[in-house]
## 1
Amino acid sequence: MAVTDQEDLAGRLWSLCHVLRDDGIVYHKYLSELTYLLFLKNAKQLGVEAEIPKGCRWDDLLDARGAGMLGFYRKLLTRLGEDVSDENLRSIFSFPTTVFSHDENLNKVVNGIQAINWHVCDRDALGLIYESLLERNATEARSGSGQYFTPRPLVNTMVSVMKPQDKEIIQDPAVGTGGFLIAAHRYSSQQSLQHRRYQGIEIERDTFRLCLMNLYLHGMNGRVIHGDALTIDSEGLPEADLILANPPFGVSTGGARKRREDLPHPTGNKQLAFLQYISLAIAPGGRAAVVVPDNVLFEPGVGTQVRQYLIEKLDLHTILRLPTGIFYAPGVRTHVLFFNKPTSEQPVSDKLWIYDLRTGMPVFSKRKALQDDDFKDFIKSFGDDSYGRSPRTESVRFKSFSKDDVRARKYDLDIRWAEEETSEDDPDLADLLAQMDDALTDARVALSEISTIISGTDISIDSIISNRDLDVTP
């Protein structure tokens, strides 16, 4: 199936979300709902229809079209969450809820899915279509976790330089919808590697469901836990040979669940906590590539202690300074940290290399998306050795600093050597217009979603806007 056909089919499926908007369903809820329906529709083609109890299959749903269809669908989902024998499939349907409110809208979406010619899609094509839907969810909804959706070119680059090997355990402790694991699986398949083990942890239930479906459609047998890596949920996982991650940004809200007690430096900063978890979760001789926001490089206190640990106890050898605007959350700037957990027999780098892919680069946005080609020089500069031990040459963008230099800076890793000549703080007119247009689009979408949610009430958008300065404090 051609790439253009896959994109067209994904576009047709995504367009059905406008039907669900009539039921007050926002983008990310639509994709979770679509996961149920796509699996039922393609179960026979995937060779797993026998796993689905009789009376709960796609043809049964088609037969139920009309009045009472929604009630039938709700009961169907409940049975699938209880009676499917395959554990992964049962997890996809665990604690199912439908956000449809009317028979007519469910009927219209089911008819829309039924009208598509699915026979031209093999399993690989279905996986790529689903990936495309996940990316649309991030770029068009741009709310919640979608703000931090890791762009595919960055994922591919991190996998490319980390080079997954045969028989390795590959983990993502903030797995999201599974992008890193799928990219690692794709790389391994291209290298004809046969024995890999994938594991992940995801805290948000709907995202966990999307991840399971994503892995399933790609034919991957991975272990994904619904839980929090920073609690005892992760303690049963074996040590990983390779960790690829983009942990959630922000500060912990202080939930009641007990945190892991083995993190050396307790902190409410999620990124610093995840870095400590990752340092413990890597097997001796393993390696990691982790996306972090800029403040991790210079935050004092626990931040300094964590950076010192990465330099002195582990082997932080490379930092990639990423361009501005590659994440959909406004103002987020990031780096990738590459580090190893050396054994006593393995050499430790005496230098820290930093590649600056931000200075002199445009501000990226939805209209000016990051591309694989943007990372070509970094991949070449990094070298073939996934532990960062290849011979390296300095360039305008790639500089080395001795570990003594780092110690003299008291482990402040926000090291710059060039004036930021371009548009980070002063973008050109085209970039400004693109950002303004994106912001207006987001505002229109938000207003539309609010309008849908409050339909049928006495509240109006006009009243909200006209009373925006009203003090509603009790």
Note: The two ends are 59 Å apart (CA to CA).
## 2
Amino acid sequence: MKFKLRYLYGALLLIVVLTFFLVNNNNDKQKALLTGEIENKEMPDDAVHKGLENSNSPNKSNVSSSVFERLEKMKSEVAQNPTDTSKLKELADFLTAAHKPDEAIPYYEKILKIDPINIDVLFNLSYIYNNKLDFVRAETYTNRILKLEPANTQAIYNLGAIFASKGQKEKAKVIWEKLVKNYPGSPASDLAKTSLNKL
């Protein structure tokens, strides 16, 4: 089962990372993301967004107490067994999903001390640092993945995207062209073709 979950998490992370890189590929959109500007400032009128018109970011007053209880339970479980990598990852993933990546990082790093070849955790750290615009660390974690799995097309694509985000478009181009040539028909190869057209 662990084998299948690894690929599931990898696929989910690929979708999130690829979406992030595609959004950031356009300089205007990237500038808007960094400054917090939004094109459409009106809240969608649907069931999901009803009642959110006057709310701010999630905080103690508008987040369900069950979420805090779940978080405290996970922290307690980790404290009771600090070497249980599945509990550490569950907590780190929860914190990442709750937009608390800085709190998640130490838990992911603890996992890597126990299991330094955990590809899922390496991807998660690369994703977090990329979102924080810390491309040096994002590149470091991506290179660790590629050292373990040189044919990991998701990591190859991500490395090219990191270079593109750093403004090193020529390096990104070389990586993506190699990806397209060596792994034709793969989802990462198809994405690389699209990204090459946008460079």
Note: Residues 2-24 form the longest helix (23 residues).
## 3
Amino acid sequence: MEYYRPFIVFILLISVVILVILGMYYGGNARSITLEDTTDFILYQMKVTLNSIYHKITGEDLFYIPPLSEKKKFKYILLKEIRFPQIFGAIIVGITLSACGLMLQTLFKNLLASPYTTGISSGVLFAVTLVIFVNSIANLFKIFNIDEKIVAGWCGGILSLIILIIIALRVKDVNGVLIVALLFSYLFRGISSYLIANGKELSILEYYMFIVGSLTRVNLNNLPSLTIITLIFVISSVFLIKPLNALLFGESYARSFGLDVKKVRIAILLLTSFVVGAIVPYLGLMAFVGIAAPYMARSVIKTSDHRWLLPTTMLLGVILMLIAHIISVKYWVPIYYLYGINHPAQILPVGSILDIVGGLLVIYLVYKGEKSIKIQ
């Protein structure tokens, strides 16, 4: 099986490319945009990007790019400003939250560990809930000249991180850390539920769209910051591969090889809290991808070696997100229009589709004979 792992990763990469093209094509209700328009747009953007880089280095153009017709220009604006950011958001979530789930599962030796169950997402959710339902707190965050939900999300992530680090330093047993973190998660959710019960109808709808996760909040202005966050996360994850592999054999074994388990534990919690606090305010909660993608990766790649498991998990997370996005915009929206339902969100949130698709896939894998996928 080891010899086929590069081939499996290659197939997953090809699948991501195909789904990106299909996502751009199906990512809206404009029927005038064809599959050819989508592929032409992708090639056009690649040429423009390469031209820009080459021009900065040499002062000359690498390609001749003919001017666009008005019709094509309109289509390209639609693809660039509406469809592309949503696809990019799906890729970001797929990479970051699935990898966070994998690292936390390895750390806690628990297949159900994820940013959601460890309280990180709940801390972010609690802070964003305060902003949505308490006007005075929302006005306080507006002084930063940034979307108040994003600032609140960072603050919630930092709060969760401080709690987790204190627990990690005081509690020796890693399962004890998970249990206490889960209890804090329920505490945050309890306070959030109280605010919802006394909230206005419009605020409840906004909260619902956030808690289930949606890609509609992503725009071109968000992309640079999301890209930087993801690059920092991916590079940091690569440096954690060896410590994660050492943790597979237990903390005692890791210590015998000179690994400072407490520092690794804090590094993983710090990294996952940072990325969840930065990503969730933009895109909402996509809790299930952090559980489903690592499980699927172990089933597909047949190893617990993070040199293979980490990239496979990221790719499967992206695939899950892109499939969920395509279903939400291609197959769910026509149902609303067919029955004349006026849905304020226009499309079903991707998080809802993700829970359904991911859940069915994991159940199928278990049913087909993956009797005991263990972290070992």
Note: Residues 106 and 248 are 7 Å apart (CA to CA).
